[in-house]
Amino acid sequence: MKNLITRLWSFWLYLWSLRPWSRRRHEIATIVQVRSRSELPERLGLALYIVGDPAKWAILQCPCGCGDTIDVNLMRSRNPVWQFSVVNGKPSFHPSLWVPAERCGAHFWIRYGKIIWV
Asked: According to DSSP H, which parts of the chain are helical?
């Protein structure tokens, strides 16, 4: 009986881990400044990459866990444009960031390094 309960519990945990919202990240751990897109790693991981000096793009892996890359325009000469700030090493964006529904449909804010899901 104990073995059956253990197996059922393990199976339930496995199913729970497959839920899309369980893969969601809840914060940006690291900010990395690079000079150009060619310096970006193949896998972005948990970091937020700022491209250019002054900053032209912010690039991150979608925090929903889908694996898509999100490019955030920081240049005022292009639209749409986001405001980006760093306070105590923690990034914030305004307005919210979103991914079109035909991709993963993620929609969230980044405030002081925390990801706030809409």
From this structure: 2-17
Q: Is the pTM of this model over 0.85?
A: no
In whole angstroms, what is the distance from residue 75 CA to residue 51 CA?
Answer: 11
- List the one residue out of 48, 10, 3, 42 whose CA is nearest residue 28: 48
Coil, strand or helix: which one is 17? helix
Percentage helix, strand, coil for the chain under 3-state DSSP, each rounded to 5: 20, 35, 45
pLDDT for 33: 96
> Which pairs count as long-range contacts for 49-55, CB under 8 Å and 24+ apart, including other chains?
50/74, 50/84, 55/84
Of residues 7 and 13, more confidence is placed in 7
Residues 6+ apart with CB under 8 A from 1: none
